[in-house]
Amino acid sequence: MSENMYFVDISWTPMANQTGYFTIGCQAVNIRGISSDFLYETVMANDLDECINRPCLNGRCVDLYRMFYCACYAGWTGTLCETDINECESDPCHNGATCHDEVNGFYCACVAGFTGVFCQTEMNECSSNPCFNGGTCNDMVNMFSCACTNETTGVLCQTRIPSMHNECSVSSDCLNGGTCMYSGNNYVCACAPGFTGELCETEIDECSSRPCLNCGVCQGGMDTFTCDCPLGYTGEVCETDIDECAINPCFNGGTCQENIGGFTCTCGQGWVGSTCQAPDLCVDNPCQNGGTCTNVGGSFTCNCEQPWGGTLCDELQVYPSCDYQQFNDHVVLSLEEDLDGVDRFLFPGGKSEEECALECSKDLRCVAYTFIRYLTPDEPPVDYEEAQQKCRNFYQQTVERAANESYAKIPGESDVETGMENDALHVTRSNKRHQLVTKVGVLILRRHLLEDTANACFGTSSRSRRLNGFFDSSGEVEAVSGVKNKCNTNKVVVGSPRCPSENQVPIQCGCINRATPGGCIPRLHRGLFGGPLVCDARAVGSGMNTDNVLSILTCAEECKHSRVHYQEFKQNLGDLEDTTFKPSVRCPAELVAPVILGCTIFTTGVIDPISVPRPLLDHVTGTCTPDRNITKNNGAHVEIVLACMSNVSPWSEWSKCDRNNRRTRQRLLLRRSCAYTEVNNMEEDIGVCKLAVPAPSNIVFIIDGSYRAGHSHFRLQLLFVMGIMQAFAVGRNQTRFGVIQVSGKSGIGLRLNDSYDIGTIIDMVDGIPYVGGPRATFEALQLLSNEMFIQENSTARNGPNLAVFLSCGASINSTAAMQAADDVHEAGILYARGIGIGPEFEYATNSDAHIAVAEITSVVRTNVTFHHIRELSRIDLMEALVADLHRLIDPTYEYGVAVTHWSAWSACSVSCGGGVQTRQRQCINPQICKEKRLVNTRQCGLRCCNATQHEVHFDCMLSSRLTLLCNQDDYPKILRVRHVDSCSMTNACEQDDEIRTSLQKRCDGKGHCSAIYPCGLTNQEERSIVVSYECCYNPMSGTDIQNG
Question: Any idea where the EGF-like domain is (predicted)?
């Protein structure tokens, strides 16, 4: 390393609001002031990890700046790797084969007669030499034919034509050790034991007669068979039932009862176990709250009822609150047997889909769940009824083995098929790998059915591998899966009306009907006598809770800086005239930037699960609305409870205006968790300074509230309008505002005389509801000219009537809109600006683009601009519109100047004796105009109200000092020089302004004064002067007046 080389560590900590790429420059300067070149380094600050929530379903997430990219696994495509690539699109299978798509592959189901991966090879049916007695085989598609010699016949040339000589001379005529014998005019083969057929070519199946009894499995041999007997049976054909009670296997006085394949011990009091070998720890039932006690290996477990958990069922079950992405009729379970590192779990507590999701939420390893529900059991055929009864034990063993291995090994085909056949349960699937998973799912389901449970729930620790297609089991079961997205700090309890902790409050009430999915309705209410909110649920149509219905209560933590606020709504539909009702409830108005935590809708009179209303949440406006109309039904009653929280502090006061006529304000974004009190982030708002324009004006904004604009775009327009309004001085005789919404039913959202307080106006505009519907622009223009500015409605004042038109596209009747625009112009209404926003103005390929542009240009005629919807938040666009409006109000106005123009001079304060006049101008930006004068004054009315006139003759040749004096004995007098004449020796006199000006400067405003050589230093002997002056009795007339 060079001696002149040094290394230093440089660090930079970005602020919370500094995100993105930044370039840092460094320069070294030595003690002599010599500088090095700048070294620049670009770094990225405060970028979030967009991959933290694992958005890629079947791929690897690559985190980028403010975005992410999914690198898909083989066989998958799409933004989130959600689409399975269809390898069958290229039609790879030949010869009429059917292509079956798989993940990252395919397989061809060949028609008969073809083989190969692509079914490209025709099968050679002659390869096995099927023709006998020298016959010639001819290969054909999916078949063959034998050309026989003259001495044979038959499909395979297996029959000899009778002749006069002995046909048994050829020893190879009879197969498998058969002996040729001549009989009559033909020969026959006497077959060896175990074979049959004309040539002894067929082996006899000794198991075809099903000789094995009691579900024994027959294994055929050469002229013999053996029976593999199930547990509990023995003998050559499994005919003997083993008496397992012969050895008295039951302990402690237990009674043995022999059954098929085993025995059962009936234990005496105080003893349990398969052989009554263990003491009964459940005799006193230590499980609380209805829990069921079960002895397990010298100990016991409690099977708790919801909502209880814990060792003794004495603790409320509390689950994390997690969001899931659902996939109906899919299974989240990898089919690859060698997938390392993936765990699978069986959740016996998941008796409904909701409970299955909660079990997955509680297990940190689980990232996806699948819930399987039993639908319609197959009735076994009559022929197998007896076999099913006898083979129940064998079938149950197969089921138990499949379940206990936790999917690590799929049961062998022979075991599964035997059990399936004897139980008359057949599961079919074209893809064999899917078939195996389906069978295991049904086996697990059947295992639970033996325990009187009609469902199964399992989870997996891998969610990014794949969704294994549709779950198919011949209509017997249905499946739904969920992939865990994110969990929050809220808690969920099942079956409890209240939250488990004192610092928790309810925010959402839901319900479960284990028997009928969706067959319940939740209610969050305060009871008949008020009090805290409680959660309960009812079965749909019954009006009362049943054993299959459970409530699901979500609770949020509440603390000093994190309070939950409720908006509660109740209405009896019998009190309304309309037959349908669809209320909308909004977060409390006092909340700043409210966040919806939950919404619960309850109504009576619902008789069908499909009619249960679900909440629709609008997080932009903070509202909750039912997803369907509430109809009258036996005096139906509806209740809505909306839980909200404000995560934002109120806005600070606006800052002083900067040199660009802009001002700022801030508010703090707080953490939602009570465990943190520090600030998480800060939000800053930039606004246009309030520019005072004394002239009165009326400004109306026409905004787009149609369905093409959408709710979010409508909200952006409101924010834009509110930002413009705050830049004006609002008052009865200053600027007044109005708002008209274009929609399917255009209407006035704010009239010009609704309020003259800017705070109230902002609140009213902020609360204008989104209407939707088609874009009826002509109706809004008619409202503008026929109602908004009509004098008799007391909505108009002196001053210009101005309009700003925001449009997201063409109206439903552009011709009518253009005609209405002509009427508006004829009414003298001026347009400050027309702003086109949205896709219809952004994309030239849009068929409506030219219509939309022509329409807005016809309405506004001048000053039309087009922007992307997000540009409405740009401060420079607001500033440009503010400047346009101010110039229309006051044509002399210059946007960006520090002060307004001077006003006219005021009248003089007095008519004589000396007064003042003033003129004023207003400061627009204090940062610039603080050094400038805002009030200007000047003297006026200088004529004396009372004065004595005096005249002095001064001979320039006789004296060098001129003295002017006012007698001040009585009261102060002020001298003022009025006139000076200069006379020559010939007594010719003329006015001398030069001497007068000189004397005025020296003497005016004083009580007396002296001047040396007033006539000058030359020609004094030839001159004299006459000075006329007055003594004013107005002492203040001579006071200096300073300009402010």
Answer: 47-82, 84-120, 122-158, 164-201, 203-239, 241-277, 278-314
Give the amino acid at 818.
M
pLDDT score, position 93: 92
pLDDT for 970 equals 56
CA 302 from centroid of its chain's CA atoms:
41
Residue closest to 655 by CA, chosen among 645, 641, 647, 665: 665
Q: Report d(CA 170, CA 152) in Å as an integer.
A: 14
Mean pLDDT of the 663-677 span? 66
16 versus 880: the higher-pLDDT residue is: 880
Question: Mean pLDDT, to the nearest integer, of 679-696?
Answer: 70
Has residue 411 got a pLDDT over 50? no
Closest CA to 423 of 377, 382, 388, 372: 388
| Helix, coil or strand: residue 659 | coil
User: If you ran DSSP here, which 8-state letter would residue 822 be given?
Assistant: H
Mean pLDDT of the residues in the chain: 76
Pairing of strands 136-140, 143-147: antiparallel
* Amino acid 1022: pLDDT: 61
Q: List, in order of start, the domains of the chain with CATH numbers.
A: 281-318 (2.10.25.10), 692-889 (3.40.50.410), 896-943 (2.20.100.10)
824 pLDDT more than 80:
yes
CA dihedral over 719, 722, 726, 728, signed as positive or negative: positive
Is the Cβ–Cβ distance between 626 and 613 less than 8 Å? yes
Q: What is the mean pLDDT of residues 62-67?
A: 70
Helix, strand, coil percent values for the chain (each to nearest 5): 20, 35, 50
What local confidence, expressed as pLDDT, does residue 440 receive? 39
State which of 196-200, 682-686, 748-752, 822-826 shows the largest mean pLDDT: 748-752
Q: Would you give the DSSP letter of residue 903?
A: P
Mean pLDDT of 80-107: 85
Q: What is the CA radius of gyration of the chain?
A: 50
- Local structure of 344: helix, strand or coil: strand
Q: In which band, very low, low, confident or very high, does the pLDDT at 435 lie, cut at 50, 70 and 90?
A: very low
Residue type for position 698: N
Give the DSSP letter of residue 787: I
**Cα–Cα dist 411/404, whole Å:** 11
* Alpha-helix runs per DSSP H in 730-874: 758-766, 777-783, 814-826, 839-842, 849-860
On the question of a cis peptide bond just before residue 307, with omega within 30 degrees of 0, the verdict is yes
> Mind giving me the DSSP string for 685-721?
EEEE--B---S-EEEEEEEE-STTTHHHHHHHHHHHH
Contact 318, 336 (CB under 8 A): no
Instruction: Determine if residue 459 is left, alpha or beta; phi over 0 gives left, psi from -120 to 50 gives alpha, anything else beta.
Output: beta
The residues that bridge with 1025 in the sheet, in sequence order, are 954, 982
Instruction: Give the model's pLDDT for residue 507.
Output: 93
Residues sharing a CB contact under 8 Å with residue 260, sequence separation 6 or more, in sequence order:
214, 232, 241, 390, 393
Residues 6+ apart with CB under 8 A from 206: 194, 218, 220, 221, 223, 224, 225
Please, are residues 988 and 949 in contact by the beta-carbon 8 Å criterion?
no
State mean pLDDT over 616-643: 81
Sign of CA dihedral 243, 248, 252, 255: positive
Name the most confidently modeled range: 9-18, 453-462, 955-964. 955-964
Burial of 936 (0-12, 13-18, 19+ CB in 10 A): middle
Closest alpha carbon to 841 in 708, 740, 723: 708
